[in-house]
UniProtKB/TrEMBL annotation:
<keyword id="KW-1133">Transmembrane helix</keyword>
<keyword id="KW-0812">Transmembrane</keyword>
<feature type="transmembrane region" description="Helical">
    <location>
        <begin position="12"/>
        <end position="38"/>
    </location>
</feature>
<protein>
    <recommendedName>
        <fullName>DUF2975 domain-containing protein</fullName>
    </recommendedName>
</protein>
<feature type="transmembrane region" description="Helical">
    <location>
        <begin position="152"/>
        <end position="175"/>
    </location>
</feature>
<feature type="transmembrane region" description="Helical">
    <location>
        <begin position="109"/>
        <end position="132"/>
    </location>
</feature>
<feature type="transmembrane region" description="Helical">
    <location>
        <begin position="64"/>
        <end position="88"/>
    </location>
</feature>
<keyword id="KW-0472">Membrane</keyword>
Length: 189
């Protein structure tokens, strides 16, 4: 059963890493598209003409663009952190499958894993706050908006929670088998 779960975690981390790479590529394309829109005055005027009656939004407002670029920047950092979290978790799982529990490599990998998780958590919080501010800015600029900022929800909570759960499980396995090794060492003494 242990090997099955470890193999399942390895496969899931590969799949998740593939989604992270795909997300990074799509985000780069979206950022390029945004830069293209900003640089084209005709397109900008047409988009503003469509947004003006409904939302009373001006694309000349630099706050919107800085918030959007900030969101994309934190999104990139978050995707990279998730990619490295999966990489380090898979490396630790590989060592556990080879019955290498308490080794210097595992401790280094665990430290890198925890740093990556910390970066991901901080970036997620900042990303959420920036998204909330962006939403509040757009709705505050709208004269006709009946939405409130409290109707926005934290959309990446499920994926982040599952990723964090996988990390906790890997740490649990490391310490579980570490205690087993420690008990064996104590019984020999």
């Amino acid at each position: 059963m242990k090997k099955f779960v470890l193999n399942l975690i390895s496969v899931l981390t590969w799949i998740y890493q593939a989604f992270c790479v795909l997300s990074i590529v799509m985000s780069v394309a979206m950022t390029g598209f945004m830069i293209f829109i900003i640089s084209q005055p005709d397109i900008r005027a047409e988009v503003e003409k469509e947004l003006q009656p409904a939302r009373d939004i001006s694309l000349n407002n630099n706050t919107i663009w800085w918030l959007l670029f900030g969101l994309f920047g934190f999104m990139f950092v978050g995707f990279f952190a998730q990619f490295f979290i999966c990489h380090y978790a898979r490396s630790i799982v590989k060592n556990i499958k080879q019955d290498v529990y308490f080794a210097i490599d595992n401790l280094k990998l665990l430290k890198k894993l925890l740093i990556s998780v910390a970066v991901y958590v901080v970036v997620s919080i900042i990303y959420y706050v920036m998204a909330f501010c962006n939403y509040a800015t757009l709705t505050a600029m709208s004269k006709h908006s009946s939405n409130t900022a409290s109707s926005m929800f934290y959309s990446s909570g499920v994926a982040g929670g599952l990723l964090f759960l996988a990390v906790i499980y890997v740490v649990y396995l490391v310490f579980k088998y570490g205690m087993k090794v420690q008990e064996d060492a104590d019984s020999i003494i």
